[in-house]
Fold:
Amino acid sequence: MRTDSIKLTGAQQRDLEEISRILCGQYQIEKIICFGALNLKIAKETCFMEAEGELKNTYYLLVMTTENTRIEYAMQDFIIKQFPEVFIIAHGLQTVIDAIHKNDRFFVNAGLNGQLIYTSDGFTMIPEFERKRIDQAYLKDCEAFEQIYSLASGFLECAFDCYEKGFYNNVAFLLHQVVEQACRGLIRLYTGYHSDIHNLSRLLDLCNCFSTEPAKLFRRHFAEEKRLFRVLAGSYTEARYRDNYKVIDHDADELCTLVKAFLDLTLELSSIESHRGAARTTEERKAAVMDYSPALSASL
Structure:
């Protein structure tokens, strides 16, 4: 877990203040924390074209609402009409406070190192936490990853079996489960967040908070890549509710190859994080003698 707050530029701060104003005008919100800001700058200058540049900011927000009823999807659909590059995780304020008191890694990290963009009561949100219990939570998340990865591997084996028997519609549905579970496992391992997201695009966007590799594997740059991803992403609902749903053998074959590569990448990324996690834990234990005085819990 980081021990320093994320840094925002003046322009990013202004963007987030505007996003906050729009959200608060539509929903009952207690606090908004930016737990991630990705800045992509592309500069082009050659002998054969005029110099040009492109700047793209992607913001990751933890929105705490007054009520505990989840309105995350409605809120996401609302804000992307004006700010397409905003990713929202929304929970009731009390839900977040309860999770912090249980030393949930995601919410502790967001509260400790994220940038508070809006607060309805004027109070900050710097959580108290016990380092030992955070370490224990990380170990539990590692165990959870192993279980989730095993589930994803089982779905992949079932998909291969269905492909051999010609059940191509089932193949696409099972491969969706593979990608969903693999993303869910990585998110749990890297961030501690217990994701209940089914939308593959959103899952891959959330993975960008710690690695761009998952989204890069599903490139979606060209029309055929986008179409094939739609076949995969749409299978979650279409396989169950669309009467004329049909996946052709060629698409099933390509998706099997792609998703197998994705599961291999998942294992590779998990190995990298496990080694980093072990190193961080060792360093943090060495630094445990240093005095640390977090804010009073009343700041919640």
Notes: The two ends are 20 Å apart (CA to CA). Strands lie at 29-46, 49-65, 86-92, 115-119. Confidence is low (pLDDT under 50) at residues 288-300.
